[in-house]
Design goal:
The chain is α/β, with parallel strands linked by helices. The chain is about 45% helix and about 15% strand. The chain folds into 4 domains: about 5-55; about 75-135, Orthogonal Bundle (Arc Repressor Mutant, subunit A); about 145-270 and about 455-480, Response regulator (Rossmann fold, 3-Layer(aba) Sandwich), CATH 3.40.50; about 275-450, Response regulator (Rossmann fold). A 7-stranded mixed β-sheet has the order 5-4-3-6-7-8-14. It has a 6-stranded mixed β-sheet with strand order 10-9-11-12-13-15, sandwiched between helices. The protein has a two-stranded antiparallel ribbon with strand order 1-2.
């Protein structure tokens, strides 16, 4: 066997092991991997690039917190940043972009680097050259075409989504309107024999929309229940582009039948990156001892956020620590709902409410049904969650060395804010509070939170569905657009 092929196989075998045991990966960079494997730097570098583009390794770089991850050259990092600005709309679609001199000032790069990246983006189809200047990709016009969004809901009756998922749906709608396409929403619901598609009203089952006017599909995975191999098989059978929005980290991306050029995964809150970013932010603010507090640690999204925080703090050096106060329950099982219902002796209220609903004029009955089946159970859930969060906070507050509470979600962060207000604990001077999801209520209470940048995700996903053959997509199976920390008054 020729030596180059033998070295390539050794590098790939090493990276296969890294991909399977990613949590234990601690090598500092490509040079260290090459030495450990006994191959040349160039061979290992090419293998790393190939595996990263396939989504089998994290596409991130060494950070100020000291987390050793796969490195990229400064040119690659700047190209990735400019690409995200183009796709997310930070650089206006169809507009003339800044001059080379202005780009040098904006991105802090040399003229040669900027020109290399501009030429690379032009070859990928993300920029167009007109004389001595460049224009960004025009807003793709898809008049008469449809983008189909498949969303899961556990509620009965009218379609409802949590605030986070509703924000993404709205972002998709705006991206489609800007592109002249129509967004069609199809609901995935539980049925006696599994999952089935229905219209938004929930009263009629429907088939997966197909036809020449459908340009592609967005499949939202916000919970483990949302992924159905049969639905995925139907999507693949259409031979249209499919964008997977994996918020729960449940999509089996390693399966060969899903590793197709027309399938792209858009990774968001189900992964560790938000936790890493939040931990780095708090470290930069001077916090050394922190707590991660979650009433829903039975869910993968909570575990992954905690793992990201733990990974960064664990590598921050002596004197830094993370204490975990968690409950192993899931947001999907309804345990907190049942506990609150029993503890509040709600059965008498529910019987009275049912009599009220039956005696009410017919014009009110539909709204009363929605109140009984949706709003009241959500209130029970909130009551049970608050009791669990307060119990965890009672434990956390005893450790007076902890200066920051990293709440698993904004819902829990709002309860932590209430707890501190009731206990006369000063925020942020005594305890800093941060959350995730950037809900409107968190903004109103001025709670520092992590925003997942759904507008950029939606814009990028719709761009893929409308132009799947652009050169940009030929190199990427997994797309992760970084979110941002909304700095407010609680940290």
């Amino acid at each position: 066997m020729p030596r180059p092929i033998r070295e390539t196989r050794k590098a790939e075998e090493f990276l296969d092991d890294v991909a399977q045991n990613r949590a234990d990966f601690r090598l500092a960079g490509v040079a260290a991997m090459a030495r450990a494997t006994g191959v040349s730097y160039t061979t290992m570098w090419k293998a790393v690039r190939r595996y990263r583009d396939m989504g089998r390794l994290p596409a991130v770089s060494r950070t100020s917190a000291g987390v050793p991850e796969l490195p990229r050259t400064p040119v690659e990092r700047l190209e990735e940043r400019m690409t995200q600005d183009l796709l997310s709309g930070a650089i206006a679609r169809g507009a003339r972009i800044l001059s080379v001199k202005e780009l040098i000032s904006r991105y802090g790069a040399s003229a040669r680097t900027v020109r290399l990246i501009l030429d690379s983006l032009r070859q990928q189809g993300l920029l167009y050259a007109y004389g001595r200047h460049y224009e960004s990709i025009p807003g793709t016009r898809a008049q008469g075409f449809k983008v189909v969004l498949i969303a899961f809901t556990g509620s009965r009756g009218m379609f409802t989504l949590p605030e986070n998922e509703t924000g993404f749906l709205r972002s998709c709608e705006n991206a489609c309107v800007n592109s002249g396409a129509l967004l069609q929403v199809v609901i995935l619901r539980r049925r006696h024999n599994g999952l089935a598609l229905s219209d938004i009203s929930g009263t009629q089952e429907t088939a997966l929309p197909k036809g020449e006017d459908v340009c592609g599909y967005i499949y939202m995975l916000d919970t483990t229940e949302a992924f159905d191999p049969a639905i995925m098989g139907s999507l693949l059978a259409t031979r249209k582009p499919v964008a997977i929005l994996d918020q729960a980290g449940v999509f089996p991306s390693g399966k060969k039948e899903y590793d197709l050029p027309r399938v792209r995964m858009f990774a968001t809150s189900g992964h560790e990156q938000p936790g890493k970013d939040m931990a780095r932010y708090l470290l930069a603010k001077g916090h050394r001892r922190m707590a991660f507090i979650s009433p829903f640690h039975g869910d993968a999204w909570s575990q992954n956020r905690c793992a990201g925080v733990r990974r960064v703090i664990g590598l921050a050096g002596n004197g830094h620590s993370l204490t975990e106060f968690t409950s192993g329950k899931s947001a999907k099982t309804g345990e907190y709902h049942q506990e609150a219902r029993l503890a509040s002796r709600a059965s008498r209220f529910e019987k009275q409410f049912l009599r009220w609903q039956q005696q009410a004029p017919p014009i009110y009955r539909q709204d009363l049904l929605a109140l009984r089946e949706t709003d009241i159970p959500l209130r029970y859930m909130s009551m049970g969650t608050r009791a669990a969060v307060y119990a965890l906070l009672d434990k956390a507050v005893r450790d007076r060395t902890i200066t920051a509470w990293i709440m698993a979600s904004d819902h829990a962060a709002l309860m932590a804010w209430d707890y501190c207000h009731e206990k006369k604990i000063d925020v942020p001077d005594t305890i800093a509070i941060v959350g995730f999801d950037d809900h409107i209520a968190a903004s109103m209470r001025r709670i520092t939170s992590y925003n997942y940048n759904f507008g950029a995700f939606a814009s990028t996903a719709v761009h893929f569905l409308l132009r799947p053959n652009d050169g940009f997509w030929s190199r990427r199976r997994v797309v992760e657009i970084r979110g941002k920390i909304m700095v407010r008054e609680t940290a």
